[in-house]
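Input C-alpha coordinates:
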Protein backbone atom coordinates (compact mmCIF):
# COMPACT_ATOMS: atom_id res chain seq x y z
CA UNK A 1 0.00 0.00 0.00
CA UNK A 2 1.56 3.30 -1.12
CA UNK A 3 1.25 6.47 0.89
CA UNK A 4 0.40 9.11 -1.71
CA UNK A 5 1.79 12.59 -1.55
CA UNK A 6 0.62 14.36 1.58
CA UNK A 7 -0.60 17.93 1.57
CA UNK A 8 1.61 18.36 4.64
CA UNK A 9 4.79 18.01 2.53
CA UNK A 10 7.51 15.58 3.57
CA UNK A 11 5.02 13.60 5.67
CA UNK A 12 5.23 9.86 5.03
CA UNK A 13 4.84 6.57 6.88
CA UNK A 14 8.25 6.67 8.59
CA UNK A 15 8.10 10.16 10.08
CA UNK A 16 4.35 9.87 10.77
CA UNK A 17 5.13 6.76 12.83
CA UNK A 18 7.90 8.62 14.66
CA UNK A 19 5.58 11.54 15.43
CA UNK A 20 3.01 9.12 16.86
CA UNK A 21 5.69 7.24 18.86
CA UNK A 22 6.93 10.50 20.38
CA UNK A 23 3.38 11.44 21.34
CA UNK A 24 2.92 8.07 23.08
CA UNK A 25 6.24 8.45 24.93
CA UNK A 26 5.44 12.01 26.02
CA UNK A 27 1.99 10.90 27.18
CA UNK A 28 3.48 8.07 29.27
CA UNK A 29 6.09 10.38 30.79
CA UNK A 30 3.43 12.93 31.64
CA UNK A 31 1.22 10.28 33.23
CA UNK A 32 3.93 8.71 35.39
CA UNK A 33 5.36 12.04 36.53
CA UNK A 34 2.01 13.60 37.38
CA UNK A 35 0.43 10.47 38.96
CA UNK A 36 2.81 10.98 41.90
CA UNK A 37 1.99 14.66 42.20
CA UNK A 38 -0.97 14.78 44.55
CA UNK A 39 -1.60 18.44 43.84
CA UNK A 40 -2.09 17.66 40.16
CA UNK A 41 -3.90 14.33 40.50
CA UNK A 42 -7.57 14.78 39.60
CA UNK A 43 -10.35 13.77 41.92
CA UNK A 44 -13.09 11.75 40.27
CA UNK A 45 -15.68 14.18 41.59
CA UNK A 46 -13.79 17.35 40.72
CA UNK A 47 -14.23 18.33 37.05
CA UNK A 48 -11.90 21.30 37.48
CA UNK A 49 -9.06 18.90 38.29
CA UNK A 50 -9.65 17.08 35.01
CA UNK A 51 -9.53 20.39 33.16
CA UNK A 52 -6.29 21.26 34.91
CA UNK A 53 -4.59 17.97 34.04
CA UNK A 54 -5.84 18.17 30.44
CA UNK A 55 -4.52 21.71 30.05
CA UNK A 56 -1.18 20.65 31.49
CA UNK A 57 -0.99 17.76 29.02
CA UNK A 58 -1.68 20.03 26.02
CA UNK A 59 0.86 22.64 27.14
CA UNK A 60 3.44 19.86 27.50
CA UNK A 61 2.99 17.68 24.41
CA UNK A 62 2.16 20.15 21.62
CA UNK A 63 5.03 22.64 22.22
CA UNK A 64 7.45 19.75 22.68
CA UNK A 65 6.55 18.13 19.38
CA UNK A 66 6.62 21.47 17.60
CA UNK A 67 10.14 22.17 18.86
CA UNK A 68 11.23 18.68 17.79
CA UNK A 69 9.90 19.53 14.33
CA UNK A 70 11.64 22.91 14.47
CA UNK A 71 15.09 21.35 14.99
CA UNK A 72 14.64 18.99 12.05
CA UNK A 73 14.10 15.70 13.88
CA UNK A 74 10.98 14.72 11.96
CA UNK A 75 13.01 14.59 8.76
CA UNK A 76 14.06 10.99 8.11
CA UNK A 77 16.60 12.24 5.55
CA UNK A 78 18.56 14.19 8.13
CA UNK A 79 22.30 13.55 7.93
CA UNK A 80 23.25 13.61 11.60
CA UNK A 81 25.10 11.32 13.99
CA UNK A 82 23.34 9.95 17.06
CA UNK A 83 25.28 12.42 19.23
CA UNK A 84 24.02 15.20 16.98
CA UNK A 85 20.46 13.93 17.39
CA UNK A 86 20.89 13.99 21.18
CA UNK A 87 22.05 17.61 20.94
CA UNK A 88 19.04 18.51 18.82
CA UNK A 89 16.67 16.77 21.23
CA UNK A 90 18.24 18.69 24.10
CA UNK A 91 17.74 21.97 22.26
CA UNK A 92 14.12 21.02 21.46
CA UNK A 93 13.29 20.17 25.07
CA UNK A 94 15.00 23.31 26.32
CA UNK A 95 12.93 25.43 23.93
CA UNK A 96 9.74 23.65 25.02
CA UNK A 97 10.69 24.18 28.68
CA UNK A 98 11.41 27.86 28.02
CA UNK A 99 8.01 28.21 26.34
CA UNK A 100 6.30 26.58 29.33
CA UNK A 101 8.23 28.72 31.80
CA UNK A 102 7.38 31.91 29.89
CA UNK A 103 3.70 31.05 29.89
CA UNK A 104 3.80 30.37 33.61
CA UNK A 105 4.87 33.97 34.17
CA UNK A 106 1.67 35.28 32.59
CA UNK A 107 -0.73 32.50 33.50
CA UNK A 108 -1.79 30.43 36.49
CA UNK A 109 1.04 28.12 37.52
CA UNK A 110 -1.59 25.56 38.50
CA UNK A 111 -2.28 25.02 34.82
CA UNK A 112 1.37 24.78 33.82
CA UNK A 113 2.67 22.16 36.30
CA UNK A 114 5.36 24.46 37.76
CA UNK A 115 5.99 22.03 40.63
CA UNK A 116 6.93 19.17 38.28
CA UNK A 117 8.15 21.05 35.23
CA UNK A 118 11.89 20.40 35.56
CA UNK A 119 11.42 16.73 36.39
CA UNK A 120 8.95 16.33 33.55
CA UNK A 121 11.25 17.74 30.86
CA UNK A 122 14.31 15.85 32.09
CA UNK A 123 12.34 12.60 32.05
CA UNK A 124 10.95 13.43 28.61
CA UNK A 125 14.43 14.09 27.22
CA UNK A 126 15.73 10.78 28.57
CA UNK A 127 12.75 8.85 27.20
CA UNK A 128 12.97 10.50 23.76
CA UNK A 129 16.69 9.71 23.51
CA UNK A 130 15.92 6.05 24.17
CA UNK A 131 13.08 6.14 21.64
CA UNK A 132 15.34 7.64 18.98
CA UNK A 133 18.03 5.04 19.63
CA UNK A 134 15.49 2.24 19.18
CA UNK A 135 14.02 3.88 16.06
CA UNK A 136 17.42 4.34 14.44
CA UNK A 137 18.50 0.80 15.37
CA UNK A 138 15.33 -0.53 13.74
CA UNK A 139 15.92 1.67 10.66
CA UNK A 140 12.57 3.39 11.05
CA UNK A 141 13.30 5.59 8.03
CA UNK A 142 12.81 2.58 5.76
CA UNK A 143 9.24 1.93 6.90
CA UNK A 144 6.94 1.87 3.89
CA UNK A 145 9.90 1.72 1.51
CA UNK A 146 8.59 1.25 -2.01
CA UNK A 147 9.92 -1.00 -4.75
CA UNK A 148 10.18 1.13 -7.88
CA UNK A 149 10.58 0.04 -11.50
CA UNK A 150 11.98 2.60 -13.93
CA UNK A 151 10.65 2.56 -17.50
CA UNK A 152 13.30 4.24 -19.61
CA UNK A 153 17.05 4.61 -19.57
CA UNK A 154 17.99 7.98 -20.97
CA UNK A 155 18.20 11.65 -20.09
CA UNK A 156 14.91 11.73 -18.20
CA UNK A 157 15.85 8.66 -16.18
CA UNK A 158 19.20 10.29 -15.42
CA UNK A 159 17.34 12.99 -13.46
CA UNK A 160 16.86 10.57 -10.57
CA UNK A 161 20.60 10.04 -10.18
CA UNK A 162 21.38 13.74 -10.55
CA UNK A 163 18.78 14.93 -8.01
CA UNK A 164 19.03 12.07 -5.50
CA UNK A 165 22.69 11.06 -5.30
CA UNK A 166 22.94 10.16 -1.62
CA UNK A 167 21.53 7.10 0.11
CA UNK A 168 19.59 9.38 2.48
CA UNK A 169 17.78 10.83 -0.53
CA UNK A 170 16.43 7.36 -1.35
CA UNK A 171 15.36 6.11 2.06
CA UNK A 172 11.72 6.03 0.92
CA UNK A 173 12.21 3.88 -2.17
CA UNK A 174 14.38 1.25 -3.83
CA UNK A 175 14.86 1.16 -7.60
CA UNK A 176 14.60 -2.50 -8.58
CA UNK A 177 15.92 -1.82 -12.07
CA UNK A 178 15.22 -0.13 -15.38
CA UNK A 179 13.80 -1.25 -18.70
CA UNK A 180 15.33 0.27 -21.81
CA UNK A 181 13.02 1.45 -24.59
CA UNK A 182 13.70 2.52 -28.20
CA UNK A 183 14.61 6.21 -28.39
CA UNK A 184 16.34 6.36 -25.00
CA UNK A 185 19.65 8.20 -25.10
CA UNK A 186 21.58 5.69 -23.01
CA UNK A 187 23.47 7.12 -20.06
CA UNK A 188 25.53 5.57 -17.28
CA UNK A 189 23.09 3.57 -15.15
CA UNK A 190 25.28 3.56 -12.04
CA UNK A 191 24.24 0.75 -9.70
CA UNK A 192 20.82 0.25 -11.32
CA UNK A 193 20.52 -3.00 -13.22
CA UNK A 194 18.85 -3.41 -16.58
CA UNK A 195 15.81 -5.71 -16.65
CA UNK A 196 15.49 -8.05 -19.60
CA UNK A 197 11.85 -9.14 -19.71
CA UNK A 198 11.03 -12.79 -20.40
CA UNK A 199 7.38 -12.34 -19.45
CA UNK A 200 4.83 -9.61 -20.15
CA UNK A 201 5.56 -6.36 -18.34
CA UNK A 202 2.45 -6.46 -16.16
CA UNK A 203 3.23 -10.03 -15.07
CA UNK A 204 6.80 -9.08 -14.10
CA UNK A 205 5.53 -6.13 -12.07
CA UNK A 206 3.03 -8.28 -10.17
CA UNK A 207 5.51 -11.14 -9.56
CA UNK A 208 8.26 -8.80 -8.30
CA UNK A 209 5.90 -6.95 -5.94
CA UNK A 210 6.60 -3.61 -7.60
CA UNK A 211 4.83 -0.79 -5.75
CA UNK A 212 5.40 2.00 -8.25
CA UNK A 213 6.27 2.35 -11.93
CA UNK A 214 8.07 5.54 -12.93
CA UNK A 215 7.73 6.62 -16.57
CA UNK A 216 11.04 8.07 -17.78
CA UNK A 217 11.06 7.34 -21.52
CA UNK A 218 12.85 9.89 -23.69
CA UNK A 219 10.51 9.04 -26.58
CA UNK A 220 6.96 8.05 -25.61
CA UNK A 221 5.31 7.95 -29.04
CA UNK A 222 4.61 4.34 -30.02
CA UNK A 223 6.71 3.18 -27.03
CA UNK A 224 4.53 3.58 -23.97
CA UNK A 225 3.05 0.19 -22.91
CA UNK A 226 -0.39 1.66 -22.19
CA UNK A 227 -2.27 -1.64 -21.86
CA UNK A 228 0.22 -3.03 -19.33
CA UNK A 229 0.18 0.19 -17.33
CA UNK A 230 -3.61 0.28 -17.30
CA UNK A 231 -3.64 -3.29 -15.98
CA UNK A 232 -1.20 -2.30 -13.22
CA UNK A 233 -3.30 0.72 -12.33
CA UNK A 234 -6.30 -1.53 -11.81
CA UNK A 235 -4.19 -3.58 -9.37
CA UNK A 236 -3.38 -0.49 -7.24
CA UNK A 237 0.17 -0.09 -8.54
CA UNK A 238 1.08 3.56 -8.71
CA UNK A 239 2.07 4.96 -12.12
CA UNK A 240 4.11 8.16 -11.88
CA UNK A 241 5.84 10.43 -14.37
CA UNK A 242 9.51 10.94 -13.56
CA UNK A 243 9.01 14.72 -13.12
CA UNK A 244 6.22 14.12 -10.57
CA UNK A 245 8.33 11.44 -8.88
CA UNK A 246 11.25 13.84 -8.42
CA UNK A 247 8.89 16.59 -7.24
CA UNK A 248 7.40 14.30 -4.59
CA UNK A 249 10.69 12.88 -3.33
CA UNK A 250 12.84 16.03 -3.38
CA UNK A 251 10.42 18.95 -3.05
CA UNK A 252 11.68 20.55 -6.28
CA UNK A 253 10.63 21.02 -9.90
CA UNK A 254 12.94 19.83 -12.70
CA UNK A 255 13.03 23.22 -14.45
CA UNK A 256 14.76 22.11 -17.64
CA UNK A 257 12.29 19.27 -18.24
CA UNK A 258 8.91 20.87 -17.62
CA UNK A 259 6.60 22.20 -20.32
CA UNK A 260 4.99 25.68 -20.50
CA UNK A 261 1.71 24.05 -19.48
CA UNK A 262 3.17 23.60 -15.98
CA UNK A 263 3.21 27.37 -15.53
CA UNK A 264 -0.19 27.86 -17.17
CA UNK A 265 -2.02 25.22 -15.13
CA UNK A 266 -0.29 25.68 -11.76
CA UNK A 267 -0.51 29.42 -11.24
CA UNK A 268 -1.89 30.36 -7.80
CA UNK A 269 -1.07 34.04 -8.02
CA UNK A 270 -4.63 35.35 -8.45
CA UNK A 271 -5.40 36.14 -4.81
CA UNK A 272 -8.51 38.25 -4.22
CA UNK A 273 -8.64 41.26 -1.92
CA UNK A 274 -9.92 39.28 1.06
CA UNK A 275 -7.21 36.63 0.70
CA UNK A 276 -4.54 39.33 0.30
CA UNK A 277 -5.76 41.15 3.40
CA UNK A 278 -5.85 37.96 5.49
CA UNK A 279 -2.38 37.10 4.26
CA UNK A 280 -1.12 40.57 5.26
CA UNK A 281 -2.84 40.28 8.64
CA UNK A 282 -1.29 36.85 9.27
CA UNK A 283 2.19 38.12 8.40
CA UNK A 284 1.75 41.28 10.47
CA UNK A 285 0.67 39.35 13.57
CA UNK A 286 3.63 36.96 13.21
CA UNK A 287 5.91 39.96 12.67
CA UNK A 288 4.71 41.72 15.82
CA UNK A 289 5.17 38.53 17.86
CA UNK A 290 8.74 38.11 16.56
CA UNK A 291 9.52 41.79 17.14
CA UNK A 292 8.24 41.56 20.73
CA UNK A 293 10.70 38.71 21.37
CA UNK A 294 13.72 39.90 19.37
CA UNK A 295 13.85 43.60 20.23
CA UNK A 296 16.67 43.05 22.78
CA UNK A 297 18.65 41.25 20.04
CA UNK A 298 18.06 44.19 17.70
CA UNK A 299 19.44 46.63 20.29
CA UNK A 300 22.48 44.40 20.96
CA UNK A 301 23.18 44.15 17.22
CA UNK A 302 23.06 47.94 16.83
CA UNK A 303 25.51 48.35 19.72
CA UNK A 304 27.90 45.71 18.31
CA UNK A 305 27.95 47.32 14.86
CA UNK A 306 28.67 50.71 16.42
CA UNK A 307 31.46 49.28 18.59
CA UNK A 308 33.16 47.65 15.59
CA UNK A 309 32.80 50.44 13.03
CA UNK A 310 32.42 53.59 15.12
CA UNK A 311 29.57 55.66 16.51
CA UNK A 312 29.03 57.47 13.21
CA UNK A 313 28.88 54.25 11.15
CA UNK A 314 25.51 53.41 9.59
CA UNK A 315 23.69 50.48 11.18
CA UNK A 316 21.18 49.73 8.44
CA UNK A 317 21.69 49.02 4.77
CA UNK A 318 19.11 49.35 2.02
CA UNK A 319 19.11 47.67 -1.37
CA UNK A 320 16.79 47.66 -4.34
CA UNK A 321 15.09 44.28 -4.82
CA UNK A 322 12.54 42.86 -7.23
CA UNK A 323 9.17 42.07 -5.67
CA UNK A 324 5.66 41.03 -6.67
CA UNK A 325 4.96 41.44 -10.43
CA UNK A 326 8.52 42.74 -10.91
CA UNK A 327 7.93 45.85 -8.78
CA UNK A 328 11.14 47.34 -7.36
CA UNK A 329 11.24 48.07 -3.62
CA UNK A 330 13.87 48.83 -1.00
CA UNK A 331 14.84 46.08 1.38
CA UNK A 332 16.24 46.95 4.82
CA UNK A 333 18.91 44.88 6.58
CA UNK A 334 21.50 45.28 9.27
CA UNK A 335 24.76 46.27 7.60
CA UNK A 336 27.02 43.22 7.61
CA UNK A 337 29.73 44.47 5.24
CA UNK A 338 32.26 47.27 5.30
CA UNK A 339 30.82 50.70 4.55
CA UNK A 340 32.27 50.98 1.01
CA UNK A 341 31.56 47.34 0.12
CA UNK A 342 30.56 48.12 -3.49
CA UNK A 343 33.08 50.79 -4.37
CA UNK A 344 34.25 48.52 -7.21
CA UNK A 345 30.75 47.83 -8.49
CA UNK A 346 27.82 45.60 -7.60
CA UNK A 347 28.59 41.94 -7.00
CA UNK A 348 26.95 38.95 -5.35
CA UNK A 349 28.07 38.07 -1.85
CA UNK A 350 29.67 34.70 -1.16
CA UNK A 351 30.41 32.61 1.91
CA UNK A 352 34.04 33.73 2.17
CA UNK A 353 33.46 37.32 1.08
CA UNK A 354 36.24 39.43 2.63
CA UNK A 355 33.94 42.47 2.67
CA UNK A 356 31.93 40.96 5.53
CA UNK A 357 32.73 42.37 8.98
CA UNK A 358 33.30 40.31 12.12
CA UNK A 359 29.89 41.25 13.49
CA UNK A 360 28.49 40.69 10.01
CA UNK A 361 29.63 37.06 9.92
CA UNK A 362 27.79 36.33 13.16
CA UNK A 363 24.55 38.08 12.29
CA UNK A 364 24.56 36.53 8.80
CA UNK A 365 25.13 33.02 10.16
CA UNK A 366 22.12 33.26 12.47
CA UNK A 367 20.10 35.46 10.07
CA UNK A 368 19.94 38.33 12.55
CA UNK A 369 20.75 40.71 9.70
CA UNK A 370 17.31 39.94 8.26
CA UNK A 371 15.36 41.26 11.28
CA UNK A 372 14.89 44.82 9.92
CA UNK A 373 12.95 43.22 7.04
CA UNK A 374 10.07 42.90 9.51
CA UNK A 375 9.26 46.47 8.46
CA UNK A 376 9.11 45.34 4.83
CA UNK A 377 6.55 42.78 5.97
CA UNK A 378 4.54 45.45 7.81
CA UNK A 379 4.57 47.67 4.71
CA UNK A 380 3.29 44.80 2.55
CA UNK A 381 6.32 44.50 0.23
CA UNK A 382 7.27 41.10 1.61
CA UNK A 383 5.81 38.08 3.39
CA UNK A 384 7.49 35.81 5.89
CA UNK A 385 7.48 32.94 3.42
CA UNK A 386 8.25 33.19 -0.28
CA UNK A 387 11.13 33.23 -2.76
CA UNK A 388 14.00 35.41 -1.59
CA UNK A 389 14.01 38.74 -3.47
CA UNK A 390 16.94 39.31 -5.80
CA UNK A 391 18.64 42.52 -6.94
CA UNK A 392 17.38 43.93 -10.28
CA UNK A 393 20.66 43.57 -12.15
CA UNK A 394 21.04 39.91 -11.15
CA UNK A 395 17.35 39.25 -11.82
CA UNK A 396 17.78 40.43 -15.41
CA UNK A 397 20.81 38.13 -15.82
CA UNK A 398 18.93 35.13 -14.40
CA UNK A 399 15.80 35.80 -16.48
CA UNK A 400 17.91 35.79 -19.66
CA UNK A 401 19.60 32.52 -18.71
CA UNK A 402 17.24 30.42 -16.56
CA UNK A 403 13.87 29.21 -17.93
CA UNK A 404 10.79 30.35 -15.95
CA UNK A 405 12.87 32.46 -13.54
CA UNK A 406 10.41 35.37 -13.84
CA UNK A 407 7.64 33.10 -12.50
CA UNK A 408 9.07 33.74 -9.01
CA UNK A 409 7.60 37.24 -9.22
CA UNK A 410 4.03 35.93 -9.27
CA UNK A 411 4.14 35.76 -5.46
CA UNK A 412 5.48 38.15 -2.86
CA UNK A 413 9.10 37.57 -1.82
CA UNK A 414 9.77 36.29 1.68
CA UNK A 415 12.22 36.40 4.56
CA UNK A 416 12.51 32.65 4.34
CA UNK A 417 11.30 30.01 1.94
CA UNK A 418 11.23 26.40 0.78
CA UNK A 419 14.53 26.89 -1.06
CA UNK A 420 16.23 28.09 2.13
CA UNK A 421 15.15 24.88 3.89
CA UNK A 422 16.12 22.54 1.07
CA UNK A 423 19.24 24.07 -0.50
CA UNK A 424 22.50 25.25 1.10
CA UNK A 425 23.91 28.73 0.71
CA UNK A 426 24.61 29.66 -2.91
CA UNK A 427 25.82 32.79 -4.68
CA UNK A 428 26.04 32.11 -8.40
CA UNK A 429 24.08 31.34 -11.56
CA UNK A 430 24.04 27.58 -10.95
CA UNK A 431 22.84 28.08 -7.39
CA UNK A 432 20.09 30.42 -8.62
CA UNK A 433 18.97 27.71 -11.06
CA UNK A 434 18.90 25.09 -8.30
CA UNK A 435 16.99 27.34 -5.90
CA UNK A 436 14.43 28.10 -8.60
CA UNK A 437 13.48 24.41 -8.61
CA UNK A 438 12.42 24.71 -4.97
CA UNK A 439 10.79 28.12 -5.47
CA UNK A 440 8.60 26.71 -8.24
CA UNK A 441 7.59 23.85 -5.95
CA UNK A 442 6.55 26.37 -3.31
CA UNK A 443 4.60 28.47 -5.81
CA UNK A 444 2.75 25.38 -7.03
CA UNK A 445 1.87 24.11 -3.55
CA UNK A 446 1.78 27.29 -1.47
CA UNK A 447 -0.81 27.33 1.29
CA UNK A 448 -1.17 28.49 4.86
CA UNK A 449 -0.20 25.02 6.09
CA UNK A 450 3.01 25.00 4.02
CA UNK A 451 3.86 28.53 5.19
CA UNK A 452 3.50 27.48 8.83
CA UNK A 453 5.64 24.39 8.21
CA UNK A 454 8.39 26.51 6.63
CA UNK A 455 8.26 29.04 9.47
CA UNK A 456 8.63 26.31 12.08
CA UNK A 457 11.44 24.53 10.24
CA UNK A 458 13.30 27.81 9.65
CA UNK A 459 14.14 27.61 13.36
CA UNK A 460 16.61 24.84 12.49
CA UNK A 461 18.49 27.21 10.18
CA UNK A 462 18.55 29.99 12.77
CA UNK A 463 19.45 27.84 15.79
CA UNK A 464 22.20 25.84 14.09
CA UNK A 465 23.41 28.62 11.81
CA UNK A 466 22.75 26.72 8.59
CA UNK A 467 22.15 28.27 5.18
CA UNK A 468 20.98 31.77 4.32
Amino acid sequence: MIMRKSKFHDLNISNATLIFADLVVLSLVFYFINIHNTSSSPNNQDIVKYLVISTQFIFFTIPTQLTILAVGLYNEKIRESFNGIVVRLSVALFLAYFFSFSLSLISSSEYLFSQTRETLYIAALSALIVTRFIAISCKYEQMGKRRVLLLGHGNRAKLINSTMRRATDRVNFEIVGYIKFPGDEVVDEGNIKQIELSVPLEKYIIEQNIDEVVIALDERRNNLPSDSLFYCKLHDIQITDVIDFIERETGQIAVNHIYPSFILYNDKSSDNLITSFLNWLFNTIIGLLILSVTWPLIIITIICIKLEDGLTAPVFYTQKRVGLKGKIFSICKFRSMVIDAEKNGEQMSGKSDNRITRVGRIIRKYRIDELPQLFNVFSGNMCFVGPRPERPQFTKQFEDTIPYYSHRHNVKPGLTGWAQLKYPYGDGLNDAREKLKFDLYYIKHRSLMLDILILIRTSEIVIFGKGR
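Residues 1-7, 38-42 have pLDDT under 50 and may be disordered. The longest helix spans residues 273-309.
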